[in-house]
Amino acid sequence: MSAADRARDLLGRLVRASAFERFLISISALLLSVFIGALIILGAGRMTDCSSAAYTIAVPGKFVTQFVGGSSVFAMGFCYDPFAVYDLLFLGALGDVLSNPLNGQFATTLAETTILMFTGVAVAVAFRADIFNIGVQGQLVVGALTTGVVLAYVAPPLADLGVLATVVLLPLGLLLGGVAGGAYAAVPGALKAYADANEVITTIMLNFVATSVALFLVSREKYFKDPESFANQTVPLPDVAMFPDFLFRPRDDVSLLALAFAIAVLVGIWYLLQHTSFGYDLRTSGLQPDAAEYGGVDADRTIVSSITLSGALAGIGGAVYVLMMLGNFQTGVPDYGFDGITVSILAGNNPLGVGFAALLFGVLKSGSVVVQVGSDVPPTLVGVLRGLIILFVAMPEFFRMIGRKFGSFDQPGEPVAADGATGGGSDE
Amino acid sequence: MTQTDTAVRLEDITKRFPGVVANDNVDLHVERGSVHALLGENGAGKTTLMNVLYGLYQPNSGRVVVDGEPREFDSPRDAIDAGIGMIHQHFMLVDTMTVAENIALGNEPRKWGGLAVDREAARREVVELSERYGFDVDPDQTIADVSVGVQQRVEILKALYRGADVLILDEPTAVLTPQEVEDLFGVLDELTDQGKTVIFITHKLGEAMHAADDVTVLRDGENVGTVDADETTREELAELMVGREVVLDVESTPPDVGETVLDVDSLSVLDDRDVPAVTDVSFAVREGEVFGVAGVDGNGQAELVEAITGLREPEAGTVEFDGRDFTDAPRRERIDGGMAYIPEDRQERGLVMDFDLVENGILGSQHGEPFAGSGTIDWDASREHAEAIVEEYDVRPPNADNDAVSLSGGNQQKFIVGREFERDPRLVVATHPTRGVDIGSQEFIHDRLLELRDEGRGVLLVSSKLDEVQGLSDRLAVMHDGDVMAVVDPDDVTEEELGLLMAGEHPEGYEPRSERDAKGVAQ
Amino acid sequence: TGGPSGGDETETTTEGSSGTTEDSKGTTTGSDTTHVGMVYATGGLGDGSFNDQAQSGIQQAREDFDLEFSESQPGAVSEFGNYQQQYAGSSNPDYDLVSCIGYLHADSLSETAANYPEQDFQIVDETVDADNVGSYVFREHEGSYLVGVLAAHLTSMSFSAGAGSTKPDSTNVGFVGGRESALIQKFEAGFTAGVKATNDDIDVQTSYIGSFNDTTAGQEAALSMYNSGSDIVFHAAGNTGTGVFQAAQDKGRFAIGVDRDQSVTKSSYADVILASMVKRVDTAVYNAAEAKVNGNFETGTTTTLGLQDDGVACVYGDQLESEIPEDVRTAVSDARQSIIDGDTSVPQNPSDA
Amino acid sequence: MSDGSRVAGTARSAVVGAYDRLFVGRSRLQQAVVGVVLLAALGLTAAGVFAPQSDAGRLFAVLTADSTLAATLRLSVPIAFAALGGIFAEKSGVINIGLEGLLIIAAFVGIWATDVTGNVWYGLLGGVLASTLLALLFAIVCIEFRADQIIAGLAVWLIALGLAPFLSSVIYGSKNTVSVDTFPTLTQMGIPFVSEFVTWELGFVVDLPDVGVDFVPNVIDLQSSLVGLPFFGALFDASPPVYLMLLAVALSWYTLHRTAFGRWVEASGENPKALDTAGVNVHRVRYGAVLLSGVLAGVGGAALALGVGQFTGNGPTMVNGKGFIAIVAYLFGNYHPVGALGSTMLFAGLDATQLTLQARDVFQVPTELVRTIPYITVIVVLAVFGRTRIPSAGGEHYESGEDE
Ligand SMILES: Nc1ncnc2c1ncn2[C@@H]1O[C@H](COP(=O)(O)OP(=O)(O)OP(=O)(O)O)[C@@H](O)[C@H]1O
Ligand SMILES: Nc1ncnc2c1ncn2[C@@H]1O[C@H](COP(=O)(O)OP(=O)(O)OP(=O)(O)O)[C@@H](O)[C@H]1O
Ligand SMILES: [Mg+2]
Ligand SMILES: [Mg+2]
């Protein structure tokens, strides 16, 4: 076999590998969404009013040149310039990263990315076990609340211990978040395993419950409300309880330590799924419950333990949100949980892919701030983009059809389920 | 239009699937008013050919001629309009709807200008049709509540309701008891008497000869001959089917039995619908013997095996494995205790279709030595293991990195068999171990099974292939309706006697089963 | 209709157009133009009350002075800091003032302000103790007291105006709050105190919706109050209040608006809006901007706006004002005077009302 | 047999029948829950009669107030319509968890179209069109491109969640729209359904010389006395969407169970191959069902927004999870339109009582916790009784001519 043949063979196998195909599909989905988003921006630019066009599409007016003469063209003006918007959205999120990698906007991007890694991998773990955990948001809230409330009591007495206090308090905070989030997720897990209650419904309901109960607890001074503030929040935690901010400035609310921790968690979860008996059980019952049962997997226990793990990851995300960004618990937690679903789907529920998808969504979230400050385009556009990306990721067949037209990745066998059901083994 | 004698003529039909030629230039002539059997082994292309006739598949080449007119069927609708009806191997019925609704589906009589289904009219027509053909069905029962035999009649009524002149039945007898099979053949006679034409698919020689006027044999997608049922012999048909003379006798040495490995006592099991599927069954399997269970599919064998292997909770009774009570033991404990199990449904249970063979190779062993220690899986050892199975059991293509889904059915089965046999089991529970496997591999699997027996392991063999269970077993239990009719010596029993037992009747000279036979204490 | 004014098919060269985005980024503006960055509260614009009121203040300032502003609507509390820094850190344009609307800004602002000592900030509804922050707070309870007096008088007489009417036998009025918080409770406390001071037999039904944006729930809560005998419902619930007005119209009863004169800003409901407890966030914003333009913006201080300086007021509905009996209006203005004079002290906490 | 004993016999069999229905064939836990609920109901009634001033007594009063039924019906409208839509889609084998998105887009376009045309009914039509278009996109993606239905549904929700506030910002400069007209109630409309019709009929009669009595006032009295009926009065003075909802429930039941299309929908979800081999195009049936879900959810979404005359686009928008509650509702209702309406009303009723309880200070439970009652009820009911069987082929793609 010649080297060229071998290379082609390798390439062929790569293309067939579902992980690679997933990657291609995700990229194509992203590009297509950006394109359609641009059309929406242009369309919206026609619906709004402005004094001068921000963007003009020039139609080389053959007709005009021919019959009217001159170099003028027919053009259509738009109030919004899609290129400028995308420039603000994608590059704005990085700030002036080349001259100052530690700038505030980039810090925001990284901070968002860090939280999304936790919620993304939380959703992914559950998905791999074929459980649709829509309750990540609620679990994150419960985790954040527990961390904020308990540390508010534990931390102040230790505040004078300096680094030693951090060494104790930080892990304690994360642990509290994880335990609380896990316990809160175990409820729908047990209901699914032992009472056949559909987890999609129960977790949605529990999201509402978590938000309401959190509001109840932190809006009353007799419970955990900070008496010093109008806001519904717990008292601020001392700095020693927080993630140290290393290179970034404290006000940037980001910590490279937290980011590193998040990455370590992603790798750890990947290892857990691919290289441990528990991970094998989890994946098997996610792909084919009957085969899992045949292979000696206790289906009910696996359901409960996987969603508990998922909830624990979400809860840790909540703890990081408190210990890195806010410094206390406050009602009105952003929709990290729902974004986590998006992140996980885009990543094909692969823990390592979650890292990249979280970065993309971190950029989108942070970039939307820049878009809002820097242009008139409503930042809800980012929400539309998010929906479009998911829609396109959900239809791999569409891209396969296009792919087949151009003869690239033609592949026999089952289509890759968009929830990443296929390809469990290929990233091992 | 002149009436031709040929109701259906298929000319030069070729149908290809990725990697397979399912039908290769097949010709078929079916006489009007006759029963025409289509015979062939698993995968010979019978169903595909009929799906082409029914408009479900479009042939790559060839022509369909009905009533002397060439037709192109783009969908079953076209075929139905041309007077063709098909009763599929897996019934095409909607469980939640009534008999009458199922029969009328797609051709509902309307009233109020089409705004409503005229349910009375539909019922009337169903009652009328079933009276005309002597069927006994209640139009108002829900499909989920009626027996398989009735469901089949509903399928036939469905075709007749659509005015079918040509009825295709795909393996209609596979799920029926012998009595129901006789009833069915009566129905077929009734149909042909009324001028209908019947094509039925089977791979049972006897049936083809008994019920058909003509028999066409397919092999590897080709028509290898059409013969007159009255003038042919079983031997001739068998040879046409498999392409060589068949030797079904497995040479085996007398067993050298030891301790009891599996002791099943008064076991009762419910099926998915909570209906008793196994009632008060007792038997034992000992080291060094093959204990066979024969019976028509659906007589409780599946539930029995699931109760033994820990996939279904028994209603009553006990299961002892290796001298310990395993009745309520979790599945994992049974695997760890040395119970290997070749499941009936390889694609649902036996393999994780989206895993590659390396991952599938440790299914069931993912928790302990030698592939997993202290919670982590040793993928290198797992790979070696999978590659060894692939090589020894001739799994093709020979690459352990392939996903299970990409393997053909037979190769999937070979891999499962390999994995389970290589477990170093105390007991092998094998259900239909050679289903869908080519002849060469069948022999290999049979030999390995006997080897295991000779090494002193217990084997519980469940198969609906009579020749297989009869040939391999040292003792043979026949199940009917959840009950063990008798435990017999497979070398002494005749096919007729077995047939009667499977149909729930005791042939003369046979005692009802006794505890002694079942447990094999006397031997 | 929309798009750039100039028509659909403009004959133009591609180079010629300059858009709004370019404006804020590219073109250099005269150094004497004052730039203000507005960061609204999470309810966002379109609430018809709080944020919109702040916006009208800055819009007025733009008309009156050489001033440009840019605005943003954070979706969550955790985003406040980021927006504040965006404006504070921007050099193109260099914002002279960053105006933070709403008490939830307080925590992040104290951090941001410390990090941008050269930047001036304004915060509305909370006090931030920093040298570069000017704080503006209101005595909402005082204004709410007045509308409480108004409601208590009208509900115990037979009053009919616009699309609503009251029954003399009614013994209760309603209050609909947005999300539970100490701030909204100031409204509730003042209102209840005003009602009770006028007629102790009148009960106040109170509902918190849990959101400033759930119009349907606001409507249902108000309907439930009207059905159980309330004639008048006062809301302090942002956009949720739209539902209260709708309910008043459905039932032919009255409502009292909040933050702005809602009989003007929500004119389709003018026939049921008796009055509004106006909170001059616009004044606070306008004054700060004006001071900035004139170079006398005071930082490190807290400006409290109460009844006396018209920071809060009971403003009668555009359409119904003339129909409200003279003696009722007199009672309201008497109460106002009494508070200003310090003869009446209004509680800030519902449990004291 | 004496009349007395006959009455006793009837009563006895009614009691036995009710007992059978409630308790027989249920698990211990289920029996316990049913028992507790019955006892609580009994206790409440007793309290309402004997101790009307107690908390329990006042709760009873709240529950039986006709305004409670009115609020329940109003709050039910968007949920019930979405649930009906969900039934059609899911029964045909396409799980549509994008209902929330359909409600959102319909709510916004409903307001926008009303604003532009000045007519509430055109607004409703606009909302329905928008929702149907989005449903069509969903259908194409699921049926043509074999998308995972759950994920595509999620995408539909996310797209609408972004698009509606985006368009609102573009058109109205804020995520919340301006206020537009709302649906009038029956009385405000001059009661065209009941009185005008009857009046006209009788007006004709009045013209006859024989009849000297003026019936017309009597008829109007009948109307207002219907409205004045305790509890059920609400049924006679609601806004058009409430009647549309009741009509849609009846029509949906009829369509599903009595028309050929309904039978095909059922077959398409249970065994699409059976439908295919019976000569009906499964794809076409599924397209029909999903589009129908778009139409129904569209009515619900537009009615929601036109009930208050404004679209609110902040956070989860004014729809705020109603689409998800709708899924819960039809699962509870076991895919039966009437069952779905029942569970919708249970949920909406809890919501309505929750608001009233708060306002009247019954049971001094903190408002935030009272607000969780509907959600917790759903979880408990689901855990105890929740074994709904989804259609066998639900969520699965079907392609003609493939092996299962
Ligand atoms: N849809 C399909 N796609 C790919 N291959 C197919 C398909 N349907 C059938 N085949 C292949 O075509 C061949 C003939 O199959 P067919 O189902 O016609 O066999 P058969 O004679 O009916 O067998 P059996 O007795 O097991 O039913 C087999 O190799 C089968 O795997
Ligand atoms: N539905 C399908 N889609 C794609 N490929 C298929 C499908 N069914 C079968 N194949 C492919 O067609 C080939 C033949 O499969 P099939 O199961 O029919 O084998 P077979 O001829 O019956 O062989 P064996 O005797 O080993 O069962 C295999 O490579 C399989 O991967
Ligand atoms: Mg076949
Ligand atoms: Mg095969």
From TrEMBL, chain A:
GO MF terms, alphabetically ordered: transmembrane transporter activity
A GO cellular-component term linked to this record: plasma membrane
Membrane topology value: Multi-pass membrane protein
Annotated localization: Cell membrane
Any coiled-coil regions, as ranges: none
UniProt protein name: ABC-type transport system permease protein (Probable substrate sugar)
Superkingdom, taxonomy of origin: Archaea
Keywords assigned: Cell membrane, Membrane, Transmembrane, Transmembrane helix
InterPro entries membership: ABC_transp_permease
Pfam family, one: BPD_transp_2
Transmembrane segments: 23-42, 63-86, 106-127, 134-155, 161-187, 199-218, 255-273, 303-324, 336-361, 381-399
From TrEMBL, chain B:
Topology relative to the membrane: Peripheral membrane protein
Regions of compositional bias (Basic and acidic residues) in chain numbering: 505-523
InterPro entries the record matches: AAA+_ATPase, ABC_carbohydrate_import_ATPase, ABC_transporter-like_ATP-bd, ABC_transporter-like_CS, P-loop_NTPase
Domain of life according to the entry: Archaea
Stretch list, region Disordered: 502-523
Gene Ontology molecular function: ATP binding; ATP hydrolysis activity
Keyword annotations of the record: ATP-binding, Cell membrane, Membrane, Nucleotide-binding, Repeat, Translocase, Transport
Matching PANTHER family: CARBOHYDRATE TRANSPORT ATP-BINDING PROTEIN MG119-RELATED (PTHR43790), GALACTOFURANOSE TRANSPORTER ATP-BINDING PROTEIN YTFR (PTHR43790:SF9)
Protein name: ABC-type transport system ATP-binding protein (Probable substrate sugar)
Organism the protein comes from: Halobacterium hubeiense
Taxonomic lineage of the native organism: Archaea, Methanobacteriati, Methanobacteriota, Stenosarchaea group, Halobacteria
Automatic annotation (TrEMBL), chain D:
Its membrane topology: Multi-pass membrane protein
One Pfam entry name: BPD_transp_2
Subcellular compartments: Cell membrane
Transmembrane portions of the chain: 32-51, 71-89, 94-114, 120-143, 150-172, 231-254, 289-311, 323-348, 369-386
The keyword Transmembrane appears for this protein: yes
Domain of life: Archaea
Major place of residence: membrane
GO MF, one example: transmembrane transporter activity
A cellular-component GO term for this protein: plasma membrane
InterPro entries assigned to the protein according to its UniProt record, in alphabetical order: ABC_transp_permease
Keyword annotations from UniProtKB, A to Z: Cell membrane, Membrane, Transmembrane, Transmembrane helix
PANTHER family linked to this entry: GUANOSINE ABC TRANSPORTER PERMEASE PROTEIN NUPQ (PTHR43370:SF1), SUGAR ABC TRANSPORTER INTEGRAL MEMBRANE PROTEIN-RELATED (PTHR43370)
Protein name: ABC-type transport system permease protein (Probable substrate sugar)
Gene: tsgC1
